[in-house]
Specification:
Blueprint (H helix, E strand, L loop, with lengths): L16 E5 L6 H18 L3 E4 L18 H15 L3 E4 L3 H8 L4 E4 L7 H9 L3 E5 L9 H10 L5 E5 L2 E3 L3 E3 L4 H6 L5 E4 L5 E2 L8 E2 L4 H10 L4 E7 L13 E2 L3 H16 L2
Parallel strand pairs: 1-2, 1-12, 2-3, 3-4, 4-5, 5-6, 6-9, 9-12, 12-13
Antiparallel strand pairs: 7-8, 10-11
Length: 272
């Protein structure tokens, strides 16, 4: 099941779709360079592609952590990515008041995992008419996401997708329960696996979230094998220099070879 949004190419490719980009918009040149690289790769492999970038990071471990370059400036960059490469764009919002503002610039509004039960945010996003991508809370069962999605539908917007980003396992780890993907697909919405956030190691004593990027391919392969509709990955040319989530991001130079292997897995599965 694919997302129905203008500018999403290759919807008939019978592959997974891809949401990918930097964690947060750090600047125009950086965003355009990343988008250009991924567009070239996704076009060659005929993968439906949506550029991902946060215009601001509201959930940070420490008050001195980087949050963004300014809302309007970052949103204008997202719009420029959209217009330059003719691709859809997704960003997250953090309050009901932000929904209308962000909707002027992007195609898909994303609800962060910690906020997936907040009715006012879900309804505000729904009322924009944009696709609403709801991240499953680390504290929720897959079955419970039915009610989050239904709030958007009940607000008059049937355009919903659900993203699994792992489930809390103790204080410092997340676990992906792959049973949740087919369970949430029963709701009738596209289900996405957030590969890189599933490998975060939160609540570190340093105040900086850790990660296990060496397992990105492991998580992604398993997601494709069980039939996820889409993959979500954060990627950066130099993850360790990224201003947010560098510890669990995929190095951009590794993306093409990874996607080639994932496409091969999906094409093999499709034969059955």
């Amino acid at each position: 099941m694919l997302l129905s949004t203008p500018k999403l190419k290759y919807n008939d490719s019978d592959l997974f779709f891809l949401m990918a980009g930097p964690c947060v918009i750090e600047g125009e040149e950086m965003a355009l360079n990343i988008a250009e690289r991924i567009v070239k790769i996704s076009d060659a492999l005929k993968i439906p592609y949506i550029f991902k970038g946060s215009y601001r990071k509201a959930n940070r471990s420490r008050i001195d952590s980087f949050t963004g370059i300014g809302d309007e400036k970052a949103l204008r960059i997202l719009r420029k990515v959209n217009e330059t490469f003719d691709i859809p764009v997704v960003t997250d919002i953090h309050s009901a008041e932000e929904a209308e503002m962000a909707a002027e610039y992007v195609d898909i509004l994303q609800i962060p995992a910690f906020l997936c039960r907040q009715t006012d945010i879900l309804m505000a996003a729904a009322h924009t008419g944009k696709i609403v991508n709801i991240k499953k809370g680390q504290f929720l069962s897959p079955e419970a996401m039915r009610f989050a999605a239904q709030k958007v539908v009940d607000a008059g917007n049937p355009h919903v997708s659900i993203t699994d980003r792992g489930t809390s396992f103790g204080y410092h780890d997340l676990i992906v329960d792959y049973r949740g993907i087919p369970e949430m697909q029963k709701f009738g919405f596209p289900v996405i696996l957030d590969v890189t956030h599933s490998l975060q190691q939160p609540n570190q004593t340093s105040g900086v979230t850790g990660g296990m990027p060496q397992l990105i391919e492991t998580i992604a392969r398993a997601g494709i094998a069980v039939g996820t509709d889409g993959l979500f990955m954060e990627t950066h040319p130099e993850p360790m220099k990224a201003k947010s989530d560098g510890a669990n991001m995929l190095q951009l130079d590794l993306l093409e070879s990874l996607l080639k292997r994932l496409v091969a897995i999906r094409e093999t599965i499709n034969k059955f």
